[in-house]
Design a protein that fits this description.
- By secondary structure, the protein is of the alpha+beta class.
- It has twelve helices and 23 strands.
- Helix 1 packs across helix 6 and helix 4 runs antiparallel to helix 5.
- The longest helix is centred in the first third of the chain and has 20 residues.
- The radius of gyration is 24 Å and the shape is globular.
Length: about 450
C-alpha cells in the first residue's frame, strides 16, 4: 500500500507542470541525448556586462535556478520522500532482499510522476537502480517495518529516533529530460547540461546540442550552426553520485532583441519576467488541461449520471474526478446546472461537451488551477509578488490586503521595497474577467 500524498504536495507537483506545458508551446526542439563525439565547435565570448541579451538571460537564468532547486528542497521533494518511505510494497521487498519485487514497487512509484529515479542500497550493495539520467539526488533512509513514521530524515542524516534503518535510498524528481524541457520553456530557447568534473569535464551530458569541449565562462555568447546565442549557467549535481554538472541556458540573440530588450536594464528585466508570468498562466489551458478534459469526457459514471439528469450521481462523479489535478468542475445539461464543485477562486476555465452514444448530452467547465496555485508558483519560482482583482475587489495578494493604490504598470514601492508593476487580463471561473498584477522586485536576483 502507498500512503496518501499530502494535498499541498500534490499541488506543488501540479504547479511545476504548468511551466513544463508552457515549455511544450515554446521550446525549440530540445531533446535528451548523450553525445558520442566532441565535434561541436563554436566561437565563445564572455558576457558583455549590461547588454540587453546578457540582462535578459540573467533574469531568465535566475528563474531557471529556482526551478532546479525544486528538486532539492520543496514540497515536490517531500512528496517523493513520503511515497518512498510510506510504500509497504517497497519495504517488504527490501526486507526480503527481493530485487525483482523491489524493482516492481519502484516502477509503481515512478509511474505516479512524483519521482523519476530510485536506487536502494542495503548492506553496502545496490539492490535496485531504476530510472534514467537525472539530476539533484536526494538521499534518505528506508525504515524497517514497525518504525513509526519511517525515517523522514534529510540528506545524509541519521534515521529518526526509534526508527530501525533498513536500507538507504537515493531518488530524484528531476529527470534530465524534464529539467531540460522546463528550463527551455522558461528561456524560450535551449538548455544543455555539461559535466564539470574529470574525466568527463567539459563534455555535454544532455541537451539540445553539444557545447564545445573546454573551458566555458559562466555567461557569454557563442555561435552554433551559424546562430548567435546568449547564455548563462548555474551549477547542478548528477544523480546518483552528486558529480558536479553545469546547466547552460541559451537563447538566440535574434529572438531576444525584438521581444525583451528595453530602454534600460530594468526595462529588459521586467520584459523577461512579465513573459514568464504569462507563461505560467498560459500553461493552465494547455496540454495538461486537454488530458483532464479527455478524462472527464471518458468517465462512464459521469456520463450515465448526466444522461439521466441525476444531480446526486453527477455530484458523486464530479467529486471523484476532483481527486486528480482538477480544482473545480461544473456540469450542466438541458439548460440546468447539475453540479459545481471546487474552490471559490479558480482561473483559466475551459469548456467542453459531454457525449454519449454519439449525441451531446451536456457540457462542463473545468479548471486545473486556482488563484492560490498561480500566486504560489509565480512567487516561489519567479520571485514575483501577485495581486488578483475581480472588478475592484482584491481577492488574492502576496503582500497583504491593504497595499493601497497599485498601478497597473510602472513603479511601485511598498514597505521599503521597489517594484515594477505589470498587469494582464485573465479569466475567472466559470466566466468573467480576472485582473492579475505581478510585482517585479528591482533590483531582481
Amino acid at each position: 500500500m502507498i500512503h496518501r500524498v499530502p494535498a499541498r504536495a500534490k499541488l506543488a507537483i501540479a504547479l511545476l507542470a504548468a511551466i513544463a506545458l508552457a515549455a511544450c508551446l515554446s521550446a525549440c526542439g530540445t531533446s535528451l541525448r548523450h553525445p558520442e563525439s566532441d565535434d561541436a565547435s563554436a566561437d565563445v565570448d564572455a558576457a558583455a556586462p549590461g547588454s540587453c541579451p546578457a540582462t535578459a538571460l540573467e533574469a531568465l537564468g535566475s528563474v531557471a535556478k529556482r526551478v532546479y532547486r525544486e528538486g532539492i528542497v520543496s514540497e515536490r521533494v517531500d512528496s517523493a520522500r513520503h511515497m518512498i518511505e510510506g510504500s509497504d510494497a517497497l519495504r517488504s521487498a527490501v526486507e526480503a532482499d527481493n530485487a525483482q519485487a523491489a524493482r516492481a514497487a519502484a516502477k509503481t512509484l515512478i509511474a505516479t510522476g512524483h519521482l523519476t529515479d530510485l536506487r536502494i542500497v542495503r548492506g553496502g550493495k545496490v539492490l535496485i537502480d531504476v530510472g534514467g539520467p537525472a539530476l539533484a539526488p536526494v538521499r534518505g533512509t528506508l525504515a524497517a517495518s514497525g518504525a513509526a513514521g519511517g525515517a523522514r530524515a534529510a540528506a545524509n542524516a541519521t534515521p529518526a529516533a526509534g526508527a530501525k534503518p533498513l536500507a538507504s535510498y537515493v531518488t530524484s524528481v528531476w529527470a534530465a529530460g524534464g529539467l531540460i524541457a522546463e528550463t527551455s520553456g522558461i528561456a524560450q530557447g535551449a538548455t544543455v547540461i555539461r559535466s564539470a568534473s574529470p574525466p568527463a569535464e567539459g563534455r555535454t551530458f544532455a541537451g539540445a546540442f553539444e557545447l564545445p569541449v573546454g573551458d566555458l565562462p559562466p555567461q557569454g555568447t557563442l555561435t552554433h550552426d551559424g546562430a548567435a546565442y546568449q547564455f548563462t549557467s548555474y551549477p547542478a549535481s548528477a544523480y546518483p553520485d552528486g558529480a558536479p554538472l553545469r546547466v547552460y541556458v541559451l537563447r538566440a540573440i535574434s529572438s531576444i532583441e525584438p521581444t525583451l530588450c528595453g530602454a534600460t536594464q530594468d526595462d529588459t528585466t521586467v520584459n523577461a519576467l512579465s513573459r514568464i508570468a504569462h507563461l505560467i498562466y498560459d500553461g493552465e489551458a494547455g496540454q495538461r488541461t486537454g488530458k483532464q478534459i479527455r478524462r472527464v469526457q471518458g468517465n462512464r459514471a459521469l456520463l450515465e449520471a448526466v444522461a439521466h439528469r441525476d444531480a446526486k450521481a453527477t455530484r458523486a462523479a464530479v467529486e471523484a474526478l476532483l481527486h486528480q489535478h482538477i480544482v473545480r468542475l461544473r456540469v450542466s445539461a438541458g439548460g440546468r446546472l447539475l453540479s459545481d464543485v471546487g474552490g471559490p477562486y479558480v482561473l483559466a476555465p475551459v469548456t467542453a461537451p459531454l457525449r454519449l452514444g454519439g449525441r451531446t448530452i451536456g457540457s462542463f467547465v473545468l479548471s486545473i488551477q486556482d488563484d492560490e496555485g498561480y500566486k504560489r508558483l509565480a512567487n516561489r519560482l519567479a520571485g514575483l509578488d501577485v495581486l488578483m482583482y475581480m472588478g475592484s475587489r482584491l481577492v488574492k495578494s502576496t503582500i497583504g490586503y491593504s497595499p493601497g493604490a497599485v498601478p497597473t504598470r510602472g513603479p511601485f514601492s511598498f514597505h521599503g521595497r521597489n517594484y515594477r508593476a505589470y498587469t494582464f487580463s485573465a479569466q475567472a471561473f466559470p466566466s468573467g474577467p480576472l485582473r492579475i498584477t505581478v510585482l517585479i522586485p528591482l533590483p531582481y536576483s
